[in-house]
Amino acid sequence: MVRFSFNPKTDWNVAPTNSRIENYLNSGQPIVVYNKKVGHYLILDNKLSTGYTVKDPAWYNTKTLNDIQNLTGHVRGYANYFSTANIFTHLETPKLAVASMYITLASPAELLIIDPQGRKLGKDPVANTSYEEIPDAAYVYDGPIVTSDTDLDPVQIHETKEIHIEAPLDGKYQLQVIGTGTGIYGLELTSFDSQGNSQNQQFHSETIPGHMTPYAISFDSANSTNIVTKIADEIPPEIEVSFATTTQQLVVRGRDNVTLNPVVSVSEHNKETTYQVNDEAGNTTKLIFPRVKQEGKEIKAELKSTQYDNNPIIKFPKTELSYEWSIDKKTGEIKELEQEIESEDALKVKAKYNQKKNETEVTTKKGRGEEKTSQTLPGLVIIKIITKTGVLGVEY
């Protein structure tokens, strides 16, 4: 595969008009361009009468090269300008590939793809290993170039990684986004079938160093409507219940094997409170409280059941939670906090915090007939009740 770089002019105030670029776009080939004023790469995918439509994984709500800038809305203003264009093809004469796959990532992360035969392309930053095993394919790294024209903090300009596979095999591909830093990423996948029809999907999520988000790609060179990408996660999230010392409220969070911060929603029905946690793959977990009551500096709650996706509801032994506290009038901080979790199956945990001693005494009894165990821990310790495949547990 040969990569042609087209540099239309030393500097442009508007996007250049060039027949070669237009021929490629008209033949269904997207083009990677660079805007040196911003120090950023993006994709042109169609010619308009006064510019181009674009795909930009970093500023993912940008639709054209001439959009009005709104950084908080993830729209970058390129002022209808780019300085260089990169074209991927086997021949200089524009020719639509039999089928192709383009993957672009803007984030502090790397890409690693595995084809149906187990061949790899990309980089695993955890193992610090790069792969180039897939024929007629390329993994391109376009680092941000910060110039005097750049009006953004350099940390806001994401590095861009691109995968291009020409004539991909039909079948299942595994794609991994592996974090190299902390931040939000934009992932875009554009595929073409043998007729030139395209399928485009975009994903936006969070990553941290070493975190791997798996995606599954089904590729069909005969029909683009069958080309589907989804997060490869079939495990529902778990739920954590604890006490927030800053707001003095009951707090419910999600835990997931893939999604870093699952979305939590709450609803009321028939005097019951239901917390629902959703991960990015569409898996859900519900936690039902028949009673949540807060009066003054005291919270009492009761847990009833949980439900993973649409599976049968799992009922808990009667489990009660209580929190009672006092506030230091001078500092506004927690002065004393008593926490208690008690279940009919003999799980019982008590914790008492004393600000003067700056320590928490924790007493635990996990089974019937077992003796209590006590320990004193430094600082303010919060007891957490967690679900794990339908069973309640305690962490602190």
Unreliable stretches, pLDDT < 50, 5 or more residues? Answer: 1-14, 144-156
Tell how many strands the DSSP assignment holds.
30
Rounded to an integer in angstroms, the radius of gyration calculated over CA atoms is 27 Å
Helix content: under 10%
Largest sheet: 10 strands, antiparallel
The residue-averaged pLDDT reads: 86
**How many structural domains in the coordinates?**
2
Number of helices: 1
% residues in beta strands: over 45%
Overall, the morphology is elongated
Measure the end-to-end span.
56 Å
- Class by SSE composition: mainly beta
Question: How are the SSEs placed, and which strands pair?
Answer:
Elements: E1 2-6, H1 19-26, E2 31-35, E3 40-48, E4 51-55, E5 84-89, E6 100-106, E7 109-114, E8 120-124, E9 129-132, E10 137-142, E11 160-166, E12 171-179, E13 183-192, E14 198-207, E15 212-219, E16 228-231, E17 238-244, E18 249-255, E19 263-269, E20 272-278, E21 284-289, E22 291-295, E23 298-308, E24 314-327, E25 334-343, E26 348-354, E27 359-365, E28 373-378, E29 384-388, E30 391-395
Antiparallel strand pairs: 1-5, 2-3, 2-5, 3-4, 6-11, 6-13, 7-8, 7-12, 8-9, 10-11, 12-15, 13-14, 15-16, 17-18, 17-29, 19-20, 20-21, 21-23, 22-23, 23-24, 24-25, 25-26, 26-27, 27-28, 29-30
Q: Could you explain how this protein is built, in words?
A:
- With 396 residues, the chain is an all-beta fold.
- The longest helix is centred in the N-terminal third of the chain and has 8 residues.
- The N and C termini lie far apart (56 Å).
- The N terminus is likely disordered.
